[in-house]
Amino acid sequence: MKKIILSIAAALMLLPAQAGKHLSFKGVEITGTRDEMVAALGKKGFRYEENNNGVPLLIGNFAGYKDVEVNILGPVSSNEATAVRAEFPVKMSWVKLENDYSTLKELLVKKYGEPTTVVEEFRDGPHDESSKKLMSLIRNNCTWKSVFEVKEGRITLFMKHQGPICCVCMLYEDYAGSADVEKAVLKEI
Q1: What is the distance between the alpha carbons of residues 79 and 55, in angstroms, rounded to a whole number?
Q2: How far is 62 from 169, CA to CA, in rounded Å?
Q3: Starting at the edge strand that comes first in sequence, how are the strands of the sheet with 142-150 ordered?
Q4: Between the chain's N and C termini, which has fewer beta carbons within 10 Å?
Q5: 17 falls in which pLDDT band (50, 70, 90)?
């Protein structure tokens, strides 16, 4: 019984060290305030553009792409940084959009291993033409996403649209951060 109690105590002492691990974006841990994240990403070459309702927008180079828009996300009730969303340049054709998605997915597989979840489907039937595939995405009849689970968090690669504007996004969610972010950003995926 004494050995069990000592084992549990030892395990509990290790928890704070594990809890201190954070997911990184561009070599910057997703922790602290949004302002601190903006400053740290500024040192990595991102330029601050604006703050929209407490969500900073930066633009810079990421994963071999130029002019990637990056938002620092967190709970609405605080300035805490718990997630980073990167939006890659807009594409006006399915072929280009799918090429970006496939290229980024391959990079993530090399870094994190195979995704834990993959959903790549058209709910309105198979399509042969690129224009019909793009319209399926615009009409919310298409889901294209891959989820990579790691110790520190989750990275979700997905296609999104806002009206006819389509792009590929990556969402980095730090597990040590608040769960409120998940509720706020899942509606976009």
Answers
A1: 9
A2: 12
A3: 47-52, 55-62, 65-73, 83-87, 165-174, 153-162, 142-150, 117-122
A4: N
A5: very low
- Dihedral pair phi/psi, residue 106, rounded to 5°: -60, -40
When pLDDT is averaged across residues 134-146 and rounded to a whole number, the result is 95
Q: Please, are residues 142 and 159 in contact by the beta-carbon 8 Å criterion?
A: yes
Contact 94, 126 (CB under 8 A): no
Q: Is the pLDDT score of 126 beyond 90?
A: no
Sign of CA dihedral 90, 95, 98, 99: negative
Rounded to whole angstroms, what are the CA distances from 111 to 51, 108, 115, 155? 31, 5, 11, 11
Written as one string, the DSSP assignment of 69-119 is: EEEEE--TTS-B--EEEEEPPPBSSHHHHHHHHHHHHHHHHHHH-S-SEEE
Burial of 43 (0-12, 13-18, 19+ CB in 10 A): exposed
